Amino acid sequence: MKKTTDFQAEEIDRIIEMAWEDRTPFDAIEAQFGIPEKEVINLMRREMKESSFKMWRKRVQGRSTKHKALSQEDMKTFRSRMQKGIALNKISKR
Fold first, then answer.
1. Least confident of 29-38, 52-61, 83-92
2. With 50 as the cut, is the pLDDT of residue 56 above it?
3. Residue 92 lies in a domain
4. Does the predicted model carry a pTM greater than 0.70?
5. Which residue segment(s) compose the domain that 12 sits in?
6. Which burial class, exposed, middle or buried, applies to 47 when counting CB atoms under 10 A from its CB (0-12, 13-18, 19+)?
7. pLDDT at 43
8. Residue 9: inside a domain, yes or no?
9. Are 25 and 71 within 8 A, CB to CB?
10. DSSP single-letter state for residue 88
11. Which residue of 14, 64, 78, 79 is 20 to 30 Å from 87, comparing CA positions?
């Protein structure tokens, strides 16, 4: 398991971005970066302003899409159905 202090600035930015996204579960962050939910919370607390952290924490607490145990049965993948099309530039960027 990688420590949160071992990440590059770009990786920290990506973790924060993924944590803010509604449909990205903490399990996806752990699968990609190897840090559990508790470490993501600590990273967010350390890297963000206090008011931003409190807003984020209030937003994700108990959110079913952020926690695998609370999520719907049909939500088994970590990425959007449209992600492949977007990645291959089939859908124009707005």
1. 83-92
2. yes
3. no
4. no
5. 4-87
6. middle
7. 94
8. yes
9. yes
10. T
11. 64
